[in-house]
Amino acid sequence: MVLKHFTRNLVALRFTVLGRSYSSGDQSIQTVKMDYAVYKLPHSQLKQPPILLMHGLSASRTNWRRVSRKIAKRGSRPVIAVDARNHGKSAHSPQHTPKHLAADAAAFIKSHKLNRIVALGHSMGGRALMTLALTQPEMVERAIFVDITPGRLPDEILNMSNIFKTMIEVVETIPKKFTLSEGRKFIVPSFIKLVKNDLDLILVIHNLRKTESGDFDWRSNPQAILNGWQETMIDYEKTLSGLGPYQGETLLIAALKTKFVTSDNVKIMNRYFPNLRVEYLDSEHKVHMEQPEKFVNLVVDFTKS
Question: Which parts form a coiled-coil structure per UniProt (predicted)?
Answer without folding.
Answer: none
